[in-house]
Write a structure and sequence with these properties.
single chain, 2 domains, 4-stranded antiparallel sheet
């Protein structure tokens, strides 16, 4: 199965600037920032870590799920893609 199905073509690089209560402040390379819930951050992430955000449209995500389902089925049936 190809794990690249779950990534967008242009992931956004962000750095964790602050973790406070249940909020995480992510800073983009152009110094814009966003606060998000800590539940969306990898479990062991800490201040200073760099993360990559993948933004996908609904239609891209639907297509991705279809591709993954096809790959899983082919793997189960022992077929090569």
């Amino acid at each position: 199965m190809n794990p690249s199905f779950l990534t967008s073509e242009k992931p956004l690089r962000v750095e964790i600037e602050k973790i406070e209560n249940s909020q995480v402040k992510l800073v983009f390379s152009d110094h814009q920032s966003v606060l998000i819930s800590i539940k969306f951050i990898p479990k062991n992430a800490k201040v200073g870590d760099v993360l990559y955000l993948n933004l996908m449209s609904d239609s891209d995500l639907k297509l991705t799920r279809q591709q993954i389902a096809g790959d899983v089925l082919a793997e189960i049936l022992g077929q090569k893609k």
